[in-house]
Fold:
Amino acid sequence: MDPIAAAVARLNAGGLVAFPTETVYGLGADATNPEAVRRIFEAKGRPADHPVIVHLADASRIGEWARIVPDAALKLAAAFWPGPMTLVLPRQSGVADIVTGGQDTVGIRIPSHPVAQALLRAFGHGVAGPSANRFGHISPTTAEHVRAEFGESLDLILEGGPSEVGIESTIVDLSGTEPVLLRPGMISASELEAVLGRRVGVPGAASPRVSGSLASHYAPRTPAVLMNADDIDAAWRGKEPRLGVLARRPSPGSHERGTWVHAPVDPASYAHDLYANLRKLDAAGCSRLLVETVPGGAEWLAVRDRLSRATTPAEP
Structure:
């Protein structure tokens, strides 16, 4: 059977399908079927109050999920969809609580990946699709990463090559009076503001819960620490065995039992490789992972967000 047709059959039967998007691979279920969506939570070990994002083929069906679609949403949709942006909007009354985490908002995204588009168009409904990994673990950017997470327990994994972006979508809350950036991504706040013609705010206590907003997330199973370059160099030359390092430069010297990953120096390439690099280090049998801090500019905001949740700060 054609893979897309097989995936649609699984979704219609209430099963789970892992599928590629331009950000990361998603673990999909029929968003109109609460029992199917519940299987996502069971497979991932995801908290029940943590909402999932609904993926659609195009913006024509957004009104089925959101009861209010403000002008700001239409502007951002025209500028960035299909693409790595999620809009949080007031939900329609028929949207299941399991999708929204019991909130009065729903996250909606239109992915640009051709395989995701083919699946969504053939299925014809919304697909709930958080990242296809165990909750809190490193997000997957290849089908092989998904297999490493779930083994043979998934109904079906659609192949789509490595994810183009490599980190999760920018999430913008438009459920209130002002736009708020809930999760940074490769679509920056300045790009959003250029389209909207006004400032985009930061999350507050009343902001909706969204995917990837917990303090610990995207994390390797090996303990990982965020450190500056000098401290990493000192540790690398020291006596601690089996160190793993992720840095934007080559190793300063040999280390008999360590693994050093030389990451790209520009933010887009770094983001593209980030989860694959963390997975490589996590599988290397290291006792501890040392991740070099990245620059403080706005273009690095999304990467800093992911690293801050995947690691713990170095002790002073």
In short: The chain is about 30% helix and 15% strand.
